[in-house]
């Protein structure tokens, strides 16, 4: 679908007052005065650490490194740079900075940062979230990208009904061909249920966001997916607006006890009685004190992911310096040429 046709569809799509009210109630959209401000209660709920202590379990770059299947897993999927890692951080109550990570998963403002299937979980409970590489453009070789895609496809197909996929779509963009192909593969080949969420919803004007929401729902309906869960969700990982509502939708898809996400209102669901609650409180205190969430293996895996992120930064910096050096060399050669011509012609 061309950019012009998307704009034309947005122009022709009627503005739904109900969707606009929902966007404003969630604290999403951008008004004339700037981004919508959240209430203190919305901020507190959005930043709650509903999963307790989470840490990196495994970083799998190929099929041989995939861990055994858990009782249930949630995988974040989508095109490169749509905000999957930032959303993961928001879901677990961690914060992401603008260009570098301050949360659980590494985050940078460039596509292709996540270069492996990163499995995050808790030793005490069965909660497991998988941050998958983005499909589409990335700062990586064709061979590396093909390796990620193969590992990602094998993971999704092999997990089957044990997996739930959260497909992330940038609110500023439309559903692309790669998104459609991935959704059809999930539904027809893997039989994996899927939820869809629009990310970066604080960056889009409210009326445009409402129209983009309607267009996305129509595009999804055309695909006729059996495993697509009803309702498109909207969030901002930066402000956490819409994150509590998404948590509750995820909780309804997962087995009881898989996580602490609230299933109904704002109160957390029961997990294991008073003993589990006491353990959760102790975990929160340790987390605030900066305690290591997992053991030696998790630390090694976390260091591996951090090393990959640092290497990616160094490669990008080297590429930028090489381009700058090339431009300077061209400018210097051009300057020398002008000097020679002036000497030859007495300029």
UniProtKB/TrEMBL annotation:
Residues 336-347 have a biased composition (Basic residues). One of its GO terms (biological process) is cell division. It comes from the Eukaryota. Its cofactor is Mg(2+). It holds the Pfam family MMR_HSR1. One of its GO terms (cellular component) is cytosol. Belongs to the TRAFAC class TrmE-Era-EngA-EngB-Septin-like GTPase superfamily. EngB GTPase family. This is EngB-type G domain-containing protein.
């Amino acid at each position: 679908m061309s950019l012009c046709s998307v704009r034309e569809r947005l122009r022709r799509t009627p503005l739904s007052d109900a969707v606009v009210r929902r966007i404003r109630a969630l604290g999403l959209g951008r008004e004339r005065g700037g981004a919508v401000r959240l209430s203190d209660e919305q901020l507190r709920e959005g930043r709650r650490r509903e999963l307790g202590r989470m840490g990196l379990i495994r970083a799998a770059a190929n099929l041989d490194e995939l861990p055994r299947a858990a009782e249930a897993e949630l995988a974040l999927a989508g095109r490169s740079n749509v905000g999957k890692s930032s959303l993961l951080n928001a879901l677990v109550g961690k914060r992401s900075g603008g260009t570098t990570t301050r949360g659980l998963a590494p985050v940078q403002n460039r596509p292709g940062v996540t270069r492996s299937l990163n499995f995050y979980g808790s030793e005490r409970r069965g909660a497991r979230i998988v941050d998958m590489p983005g499909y589409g453009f990335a700062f990586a070789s064709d061979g590396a990208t093909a390796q990620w895609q193969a590992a990602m496809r094998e993971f999704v197909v092999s997990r089957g009904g044990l997996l739930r996929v959260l497909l992330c779509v940038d609110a500023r963009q439309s559903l692309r061909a790669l998104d459609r192909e991935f959704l059809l593969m999930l539904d027809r080949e893997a039989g994996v249920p899927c939820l869809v969420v629009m990310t970066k919803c604080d960056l889009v004007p409210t009326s445009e966001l409402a129209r983009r929401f309607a267009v996305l729902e129509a595009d999804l309906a055309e695909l006729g997916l059996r495993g697509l869960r009803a309702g498109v969700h909207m969030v901002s990982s930066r402000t956490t607006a819409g994150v509590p509502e998404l948590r509750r939708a995820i909780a309804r898809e997962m087995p009881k006890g898989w996580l602490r996400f609230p299933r109904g209102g704002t109160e957390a669901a029961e997990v294991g009685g008073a003993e589990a609650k006491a353990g959760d409180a102790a975990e929160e205190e340790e987390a605030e004190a900066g305690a290591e969430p997992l053991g030696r293996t998790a630390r090694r895996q976390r260091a591996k992911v951090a090393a990959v992120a640092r290497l990616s930064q160094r490669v990008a910096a080297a590429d930028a310096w090489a381009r700058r050096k090339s431009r300077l060399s061209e400018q210097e050669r051009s300057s020398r040429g002008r000097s020679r011509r002036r000497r030859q012609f007495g300029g």
